[in-house]
Design brief:
Helix content: under 10%
InterPro entries: WD40/YVTN_repeat-like_dom_sf (IPR015943), WD40_PAC1 (IPR020472), WD40_repeat_CS (IPR019775), WD40_repeat_dom_sf (IPR036322), WD40_rpt (IPR001680), WD_repeat_multifunction (IPR051179)
Radius of gyration: 21 Å
Keywords: Repeat, WD repeat
CATH topology: Methylamine Dehydrogenase, Chain H
Protein name: 60S ribosomal subunit assembly or modification protein
Pfam family, one: WD40
Structural class: mainly beta
CATH superfamily: YVTN repeat-like/Quinoprotein amine dehydrogenase
Number of domains: 1
Number of helices: 1
Length: about 400
């Protein structure tokens, strides 16, 4: 099997130094709608349902509307789970490899070009809710509701470490510059280990309810976590000190559970999303910059564009709102037919990809709101996806027990 790997050194102390990189500060006056002469909204979901990009009908019904034609736009799939696939991940450098984990308590390494299983990594005793490759692609980790995190070598499938300590694991993230892994837990704690030694580097305690989301900043110097208790904390990874804390006690901040967060490429801005239907733009120095409030239900996805000063939020209301973060104004609003689960901007273009409970993956132009492509193939809601940086390949995991590969 092709398992290209690049060797990356462990992060030195410099990667964990906190910096106050203050740009400009915008007063928190709430989101403003765009004026009518600004860019118009995107294409409607109803139009896209009738005709796909190639002009072919996507879904049709027989006389009387009793039968629905099934459309499968996927180019490959993996079908061994046979239970909901909760987590998927594309290898960072080998275009043929992917990992998936699911409700069958198993994780797999497999090929997206053939659909063949490479390794069965199944050692959990409860559902696998997170899978992730290390930044150099040398390791792959799986985290489960059994509270265990397993780390394997990608080239051999060999188990390198069994990591324990948290209760149910909720998410995992690798350091962007070295083999250090972070895991959030149902018990409100966050754990950090060094790989392959398995040395526990720090335990972060400060949340009092499940840690729902978290990650290293792109520069590797800080950690950001969000919790069901409505708090968001900026941590120093080296000392496990909470540098800044946002809580519902501040009336300007979220008043309910944090559901998702994103960090811009410069590691200066944070976008937080909440069950209360709001989003907040925060500065890494601890300031609330803006309220981005236009959704009617829980906001479940967030992301920054690397190409233009845009950010996006996706909600259970089916909407994706695209914001201009220089003016703090709503630029576009586009629509899925059901809850938005996840979104990701393309690395070098003002485009984004989203997946939804409506069983579709969609590609959008963030400037115009135009829906560029709709991919169908799942028969139940999509629970997770992984997108190649250029948006050319999308890997999805679904409640229907399959993982599918879509290609632009």
């Amino acid at each position: 099997m092709n398992t290209e790997r690049d060797t990356v050194e462990q992060p030195d102390d410099g990667d964990f130094l906190a910096e106050d990189e203050v740009a400009h500060v915008v007063e928190d006056e709430g989101a403003e709608p765009m004026s009518e002469d600004d860019d118009a909204g995107g294409a409607s979901a109803e139009d896209d349902d009738d005709i796909d990009e190639d002009g072919e009908g996507a879904e049709g019904s027989a006389a009387g509307g009793e039968e629905i034609a099934f459309v499968d736009d996927s180019v490959q799939g993996f079908f061994d789970h046979r239970e909901p696939v909760y987590a998927v991940s594309l290898h960072p450098s080998d275009p043929t490899l992917a990992a998936s984990g699911g409700g069958d308590d198993r994780s797999y390494l497999w090929r997206i070009d053939t659909g063949d299983k490479v390794f069965d990594l199944g050692v959990h005793t409860d559902s696998v809710v997170a899978v992730r490759f290390s930044s150099d692609g040398q390791f792959v980790a799986s985290g489960g509701m059994d509270g265990k995190l397993f780390v394997f070598r990608v080239d051999t499938g060999k188990l390198v470490q069994t990591l324990e300590g948290p209760s149910e694991i909720t998410w995992i993230d690798w350091h962007p510059k070295g083999n250090v892994i972070l895991a959030g837990s149902e018990d409100g704690s966050v754990w950090m280990w060094q790989i392959p030694s398995g040395n526990c580097m720090n335990v972060f305690t400060g949340h009092v309810e499940p840690v729902t989301c978290g990650q290293f900043t792109p520069d590797g110097k800080l950690i950001i976590t969000g919790s069901a208790d409505g708090s968001l904390i900026i941590w120093d990874p080296k000392t496990a000190t909470a540098l800044h804390r946002f809580t519902p006690q501040d009336s300007r901040f979220h008043q309910s559970a944090i559901t998702a967060l994103a960090i811009n490429k410069d590691s200066t801005l944070i976008l937080s999303a909440s069950q209360d239907g709001t989003a907040r733009l925060l500065h890494i120095n601890g300031r609330i910059l803006a309220s981005l409030d236009s959704h009617q239900d829980s906001v479940e996805a967030a992301g920054f564009s690397n190409h233009l000063p845009y950010a996006a939020t996706g909600s259970v209301d089916g909407k994706i709102n695209i914001w201009d973060i220089t003016s703090m104004r709503l630029r576009q609003s586009v629509q899925h037919e059901d809850a938005v689960i996840k979104l990701q901007w393309h690395q070098n273009a003002p485009l984004l990809t989203s997946c939804s409970s409506d069983m579709t993956v969609r590609s959008w132009d963030g400037r115009s709101g135009e829906c560029l492509k709709i991919w169908r193939g799942h028969q139940s809601p999509i629970l997770d996806f992984s997108v190649r940086g250029d948006g050319g390949v999308v890997l999805t995991g679904s409640d229907d027990g399959t993982a599918l590969v879509f290609q632009a």
